[in-house]
Amino acid sequence: MSSLESIQVATAMHNVEQQRQRAARWRKRGFCLALLGVALLAPLAVYPVFLMKLLCFALFACAFNLLLGYTGLLSFGHAAFLATGGYVTGHLLSQYSGLSTELGILAGTLASGVLGLGFGLLAIRRQGIYFAMITLALAQLVFFLYVQAPFTGGENGLQGVPRGHLFGLIDLSSNLALYYFVLAVFVFGFAVIQRTIHSPYGQVLKAIRENEPRAISLGYNVDAHKLLAFVISATLTGLAGATKTVVFQLASLTDAHWHMSGEVILMTLLGGVGTVLGPLVGTGVVVTLQSYLSSGPLGDWVHVILGLIFVLCVLLFRAGIVGWVHKLIRRNFK
Amino acid sequence: MTLLFGIPLSVMLGQLLLGLINGAFYALLSLGLAIIFGLLRIINFAHGALYMLGAFAAWLGLNYLGVNYWVALLLSPLLVGAVGMAVERHLLRRIAGEDHLYGLLLTFGLALIVEGSFVKLFGVSGASYPMPELLKGGHNLGFMFLPSYRAWVVVAALLVCIATWYMIERTRLGSYLRAGTENPKLMQAFGINVPLLVTLTYGYGVALAAFAGVLAAPIYPVSPTMGANLLIVVFAVVVIGGMGSIMGAIVTGLAMGLIEGLTKVFYPQAASTVVFLVMVIVLLFRPAGLFGKEA
Amino acid sequence: MKVFKKTASAMLVSSLIAGTAQAQVSDDEIRIGYLADMSGTYRDLAGPGGLEALKMAVEDFGGSVDGKKIVVFNADDLNKPDVGANTVRQWVDERNVDMVTGLVATSVVLAASKVVEQADKLALISGAASSSITNEYCSPNHIHWTYDTYALANGTAKAVLAAGGKSWYLLTADYAFGHSMEADISKVVKEGGGSVLGSVRHPFPSNDFSSYVLQAQGSGAEVIALANAGADTVNALKTASQFGVTQAGQKLAGMVVFLNDIHAMGLDVTQGLMLTTGWYWDMNDETRAWSRRYFDRFGRMPTMAQAGVYSATTHYLNAVKATGSDATATVRAQMAATPVNDMFAKGGQIRTDGRMVHDMYLAQVKTPAESKGEWDLYKIVSTIPAQQAFRPLADSQCKLVTGKVAQN
């Protein structure tokens, strides 16, 4: 083949590839729009408070997935950020009755971000299990602070947090109005994560996850990149926690306990680490299981069933539900 | 009455002695964990549940089979160790080459299953295990009344720890083990059955946890969740000591028991959290832990 | 204009209907939710047993009130305020629950009662301890039935003081319930001429009490009071017995002790322990008869919390029958106007602050020799009359009593 011909073939292949990618992107967009449509109509069929719980935890899982799936860092202390968002927002909304809801949530989110920066600075130099253990230890210290601090209400939790008014105008005490607000918050958080992943910065994160020494040798400031990912993850987790407190009008120690950190790992793993929809699916399964199992005859077996799912996931479904679905699609439709 | 920092010396000594006793438990548990991680690179999140199984095996043995405490001290670790070996052979081995993360998650899932099942079967309030006759009562040491059983716990735990350390660091079997985990292929070439060695080692680590469980049965409530909160403290101890270090686990376990004891005198609410504070501080200055070998 | 007229007339009609609904049973059903710890530390003091007691009350009532069926559902609150509050919220939103009972852990109760108050339903609290429930946290939407920390402190602490225990050391669970128990005990001890030598707060829950028992021993106090409950009390007592506390001459006072705790620990460890209870199965023929029936169904003798659920539910159903309505304010008024006269209490009275005031009993745990049966565990030493047992209204901080305007 002459060089001109090979260039033509290469260009043609490139165009075909581009078209295929464009088609895939449109499929993805269509799918997302369809999901959004379902989400908009869902409260007509399903109890809105349950849906809001799903959305808050889904945001939590997505934020966690950014760190685990896309940066390769396993944090065992994310509960601290969920709780900080919740307590700070809950405290401010309870104390200052004139404060409009979104400002309260903003404050909680920022507080979590700052805490995330603190954790990150201390932990980011470590690798693997040491990183996980430091985040766990720091989260335990935060847990202790929240147990002792009077403003959190300790074991009782921060109760009776007013839902307040959005922008000072829209009354959020109605479940339906609040639902659309929470949906908007979720979509915002999700969009932030997507933008982060698909940006040049996101590509560097991927490189760090795949081969960190390589990334260092290429001249990237790996620690700074990891720190930023950590802070973004912590901030969005705080957003989830803050919103959750407004929905349930309660912030409690459950949010700060290390079991919560374990739960988000389960949700992410089950759905598929490093996939876009994985955290949503994982959260959906876990939260639904917990809610509906505990009211049925299998109520006592909730933990056992969750444990079984964990084990099966690790042994058989390491790619998670979404990963498994992807494999199926690839095998059958390509 | 001599005062040290405002606390009577007798009270201080008493608390330190109690701290030593707790430290013996920590040492035993973190030793098992350190062996499993240091030598097998498995992050065994089921350790707390295995400790609980050891205690329950003793309790079930007593109530259904008439097995007494002394027999249980021997049988329970063997039984639970066998269970551990089965788990390693059939479950953990499948993910042997993968990221450490999966070992952590798998064992965490197993812990949930075991603890959840036991809660369903036995409820959460602890069952009672009677104190063995020989060790009832205690001695008045002047500054405190020391129950004989607790003295026995320190002695038994230290003996087992030292024996284990000796076996791993000073015997041929131990050297096979250490070599086998550093370079399994080479060891296999020498004719050593490395997979069997790995299984036995995991079993031994598990047996240590079960032994601690039997020791705990007469003094702590035998409840399905007895290992759950202990687990992260023990992990912290292992990390502080250095995850690969056997001696580190023993020494740090004892030291943390003492530190916790002191904390209970001055600021008891922080007693369960102080180990994490120590971990953060230690890891800032010695990233691999106090006796650790790698960063 | 048409739309406006339609809306206006719709509003008019619905408000008329709502007005008449006052004297009706909503949804033609009486819906009762049972919320308690069904699997954790506090399982045996109320838990599934309390649900059984609730079902007994419904069955004894005939399963319906004037043709309106009584529907019962339940959930496990896992001792977590978020789980409890969310469950109650769901019951209100999805099932239109009328009354919630059980309610054990104080933290759960405080969270759930906020939801109940917002929705204007009724909560009958049987299991929880803290006296703050009818003090700072009182509301017109909940009634505290069986006992509280004030009554327990009053009973046990006063009795132990009278028996010669003048110097006290407190072992306290480090959360709201423990703190309020500690405050109530200190008040009684000081007013009774005794002194509190010191106290130590242990994390909730704790497994290892050795260091706290050691400190209590070191203080030299005549009485060591346990301001904790459930598994914590059990562990503390076991540890104290290992360290030879009573042999060395110090007295132990368990503040919140239930029948199931004594049964679990055994008489060897607990003999001689003084405690205050709101009810005991073996007090008189009426209690024995009811308890026998309960035992035949459930296999264990009832605790005061479980008996309290039966009593509260029966009183509630009587009020619903009398008024023909399940609207909260109506029923509550009727419940307050009628004295509680059943196997649980005689002449019990529901006060403005929501406290159901009735006689309390000082009891002592029997020695193994005195006990003639598996559940023959207490002897009743004396009765504390209702008016003396609970916090007087004059000392109350409840907004309904002091007339302060509610903040929220």
Description:
The complex is a heterotrimer of chains A (334), B (295) and C (408). Chain A is mainly α and 334 residues long. Chain A has a domain at 46-257. Chain A is 74% helix and 2% strand. Chain A has 13 helices and four strands. In chain A, the strands form two sheets. In chain A, strands 1-4 form a two-stranded antiparallel sheet. A two-stranded antiparallel sheet of chain A has the order 2-3. The radius of gyration of chain A is 21 Å and the shape is globular. The two termini of chain A are 29 Å apart. The relative contact order of chain A is 0.16. Chain B is mostly helical and 295 residues long. Chain B has one domain (8-285): ABC transporter involved in vitamin B12 uptake, BtuC, CATH 1.10.3470. Chain B has a two-stranded antiparallel sheet. Chain B has a two-stranded antiparallel ribbon with strand order 3-4. The longest helix of chain B has 32 residues, at 9-40. The radius of gyration of chain B is 19 Å and the shape is globular. With 408 residues, chain C is α/β, with parallel strands linked by helices. Chain C has helices at 2-20, 47-60, 81-95, 106-119, 149-162, 176-191, 210-219, 230-242, 259-265, 267-270, 285-298, 304-323, 328-337, 386-389, 399-402, and strands spanning 29-36, 64-65, 68-76, 99-102, 122-125, 142-144, 167-173, 195-202, 223-229, 251-256, 274-277, 349-350, 356-357, 360-365, 378-384. A six-stranded mixed β-sheet of chain C has the order 2-3-1-4-5-6, with helices on both faces. In chain C, strands 8-7-9-10 form a four-stranded parallel β-sheet, with helices on both faces. In chain C, strands 11-14-15 form a three-stranded antiparallel β-sheet. In chain C, a hairpin with a 2-residue loop joins strand 2 and strand 3. Chains in contact: A-B, A-C, B-C. The interface between A and B is large, with 40 and 41 residues.
